[in-house]
Amino acid sequence: PRTFPGEPLDRERILGLAVHPVSKKSAVEAVTRRALSPETGAYVCLTNVHTTVESRNSPELREAIDKAFLSVPDGMPLAWILKNRGYRETEQVAGIEYVPMVARAGLELGLRHYLYGGPPGVASQAGRRLERLAPGVHGDVSRDRRPVHVREGNFSGAPPGDDVHLPEADRP
To answer: What pLDDT is attached to residue 73?
Structure first.
């Protein structure tokens, strides 16, 4: 049973790494429920064979994926393994399909979407592409690759005085 509105159903381990046996639809629903819940600080990992193998030699990567709110099978081999374990509804949840699906579902629920990070211009370019795939999505901030946390409508994680403040109308 779920303990809060956005919690995924089950978590399996493949080569010791956490992967949730989800369909595209259930992965989208889990993220939108979590976004609407009072819980904060969640992230999703798009887990594939490469990250699964790499995590065996990288405790940091393994920990990051294990602590994710959701670790989706972004690759057919992981989806096949989960299906073989009895999770018949499991699908490959590829990021290129998943992100626009989450954006469209979020828009229907009144959620806002922001892209952050990467070299200058990357978030803007990704935002324009996402806007074509999910009309109505807009807004981006791209500063650098520092960790970021969204609280009270401000992006923090940058040095004091270097926060990015969103206009009142765009605050979550």
So the answer is: 97
